[in-house]
Amino acid sequence: MEGFEGKGTVITGGANGIGLATATEFARRGARIVLADVDQPALEQAVTHLRAQGFEAHGVMCDVRYLKEVIHLADEAFRLLGQVDVVFSNAGIVVAGPLVQMTHDDWRWVIDIDLWGSIHTVEAFLPRLLKQGTGGHMAFTASFAGLMPNVGLGAYSVAKYGVVGLA
Q1: Distance CA 165, CA 140 (A)
Q2: Which residues are bridge partners to 60 per DSSP?
Q3: Annotated catalytic, 161?
Q4: Which is catalytic among the residues 12, 153, 156, 162?
Q5: Using one digit for the tens of pLDDT, what is the confidence trace for 89-112?
Q6: CA–centroid distance for 123 within its chain
Q7: Could you tell me which residues come within 8 angstroms of residue 109 by beta carbon, excluding any fewer than 6 positions away?
Q8: How far, in Å, CA of 37 to CA of 63, rounded?
Q9: How many helices (H) and strands (E) does the chain have?
């Protein structure tokens, strides 16, 4: 891909942190942005922040744990941008602590967001990227935990190892 000027970019977990920083840099380089997040106030604030700098930015509420919501995100992104060139599956959370203290719900929450969120993003966007015939890129946040196990980050490491394998 040559530059970001005019490129349609979608970022999950885009309301803060790595997602918002990446969106800001892509926008600075000329990309048109759709941010997705579960935190509506933070999402609205992030979109307002980008627009105040003169960037094209849109927000779509999305809980990546649910394929139906990620499909809705894809629908909205293509509607708003016309074409999507970059999809950054970034949404993620961590529950830290010894494995023996992790509950089933802890495991489910981490795996559903950190791994299934990326799988849902592939399911919702990859066929459309291929169909539009102009190519596209998918990127994933995996962290160092996707390459090296970390004490106290069992579920997170499991999910991020999966994301590395998916990518």
Answers
A1: 11
A2: 36
A3: no
A4: 156
A5: 999 999 999 999 999 999 999 999
A6: 13
A7: 93, 95
A8: 7
A9: 6, 5
- pLDDT tens digits, residue range 104-144? 999 999 999 999 999 999 999 999 999 999 989 999 999 88
Strand partners, 9: 33, 86
Which tokens belong to 131? 């169909």
Q: How far apart are CA 19 and CA 141, in angstroms?
A: 9
* Max Cα–Cα distance, the chain, nearest Å: 49
Please, what sign has the CA dihedral across residues 28, 32, 36, 39? positive
Q: Which of 83, 88, 77, 74 is closest to 13 using CA atoms?
A: 88
* 0.70 surpassed by pTM: yes
Strand partners, 71: none
> Which of 143, 146, 150, 145 minimizes the C-alpha distance to 98?
150
Cα 165 to Cα 21, 127, 141, 160, 162: the distances in Å are 25, 19, 12, 9, 5
